[in-house]
Design brief:
This protein has about 250 residues and is α/β, with parallel strands linked by helices. Helices cover about 45% and strands about 15% of the residues. A seven-stranded parallel sheet has the order 3-2-1-4-5-6-7, with helices on both faces. Strand 4, helix 4 and strand 5 form a beta-alpha-beta unit. Bound molecules: NADP nicotinamide-adenine-dinucleotide phosphate. NADP nicotinamide-adenine-dinucleotide phosphate binds next to helix 1, strand 2 and helix 4. The site of NADP nicotinamide-adenine-dinucleotide phosphate (NAP) has 30 residues, from helix 1, strand 2 and helix 4.
Length: about 250
C-alpha cells in the first residue's frame, strides 16, 4: 500500500558532511526534506536544498542553532507551517573540539554538551507533539563510537554522545506505544570537515584505518543506508538501539 502523502524528514546540521549525505539520500528515497543548519552556513545549506530538490520532492532550509530553545521552536513552527507533518527526525548537528581533560575549558565543555546533547533533546521535545498527533515517528540520533569507548582529547565530546545514547533509550521507552521509534547511529571515522580533526595527519589516518576490520576510512555516504533503515517501516520493531557504522572498529 502506498501512503497518500509524501513523508517529511527533518535533518539537522544538513549543509555538509554526514548531514548533507543523509538529506540527499532521504530526498532520493521520496521524503520531502526540511534541512537545518546554523545561520552562518546559509549559502552551503541553500546549495544542499537545491541538490535535494533535484530528486523531485520539496526541500526547505531552516536556519537555527539547535542549542537554542527559541531557535528550535521557530524552526519547528516554520516546518509545520510549510509541510504540516514530521515523519522522521535525524539529529545530526554536532561539534567536536579536541583537548585534554586537564586543560579543557568550562566553555568548551558547555558548548559541546549544549549542541550535541541538549540540542538533540530540544529538537525532539519540539517535534514530539506533531509525531504524537500523527501516531507515527522515526527518530534517528547521530551519536558516535566515541560515546562508547571514548578517545583521548574528546572527554566532553564522548560524554555528549553517551548522553545522546542514554536519551535515545529513554525516548524508546516513553514513546514505544505512540508509534514512534528512536534509535542511534554511531559513526566511526568518517571523512568530513569534522573527521579531519582525526585525519589531517597521514600517519594518524593510517592508524585509524588499521583499526577498522575493513581497512578503510568511511565516507558520509557509508552512513546513509543505516539511517534510511531507521527512518523506514522496515525498522518498525526496532527501537532504543545503537548501530555502529564504522567498518568494524567497535564490536558492541
Ligand atoms: P561537520 O562536517 O562538521 O558538519 C556538522 C554541521 O553541523 C556543520 O554544518 C555545522 O556548522 C553544523 N552545526 C554546528 N553547530 C550547530 C548548531 N548549533 N545548530 C545547527 N547546526 C550546527 O560534521 P560531520 O562529520 O558531518 O558530523 C555530523 C554528525 O556525525 C555529528 O553529530 C558528529 O558528532 C557525528 N559523527 C561524526 C564522525 C566523523 O568522523 N565525521 C564520527 C562520529 C560521529 P558549523 O561548521 O558552522 O559549526
Amino acid at each position: 500500500m502506498t501512503t497518500p502523502f509524501r513523508k517529511v524528514a527533518l535533518v539537522t546540521g544538513a549543509s555538509r558532511g554526514i548531514g548533507r549525505a543523509i538529506a540527499l539520500d532521504l530526498a532520493q528515497r521520496g521524503f520531502d526534506v526540511a534541512l537545518n543548519d546554523i545561520a552562518r552556513q546559509a549559502d552551503t545549506l541553500a546549495e544542499t536544498v537545491r541538490e535535494a530538490e533535484a530528486f523531485g520532492g520539496r526541500a526547505i532550509a531552516l536556519h537555527a542553532d539547535v542549542s537554542s530553545k527559541a531557535d528550535v521552536s521557530s524552526m519547528v513552527e516554520s516546518l509545520l507551517a510549510q509541510f504540516g507533518r514530521i515523519d522522521a527526525v535525524v539529529n545530526n548537528a554536532g561539534i567536536l573540539i579536541a583537548g585534554p581533560v586537564e586543560t579543557l575549558t568550562e566553555s568548551s565543555w558547555d558548548v559541546v554538551m549544549d549542541i550535541n546533547a541538549k540540542g538533540t533533546f530540544l529538537v525532539i521535545q519540539a517535534t514530539l507533539p506533531a509525531m504524537k498527533r500523527q501516531g507515527y515517528g522515526r527518530i534517528v540520533n547521530i551519536a558516535s563510537i566515541g560515546g562508547k569507548h571514548g578517545a583521548p582529547e574528546q572527554a566532553h565530546y564522548s560524554a555528549s554522545k553517551a548522553a545522546v545514547m542514554g536519551f535515545t533509550r529513554v525516548l524508546a521507552q516513553e514513546l514505544g506505544s505512540s508509534g514512534i521509534t528512536a534509535n542511534c547511529i554511531c559513526p566511526g571515522i568518517i571523512l568530513t570537515d569534522m573527521g579531519r580533526v582525526n585525519l589531517d595527519d597521514p600517519e594518524v589516518q593510517k592508524i585509524w584505518r588499521s583499526k577498522t576490520a575493513q581497512d578503510r576510512i568511511g565516507a558520509p555516504e557509508d552512513v546513509v543506508g543505516p539511517v534510511a533503515f531507521f527512518c523506514s517501516d522496515d525498522s518498525a520493531f526496532v527501537t532504543g538501539q545503537t548501530l555502529n557504522v564504522d567498518g568494524g572498529i567497535v564490536f558492541s
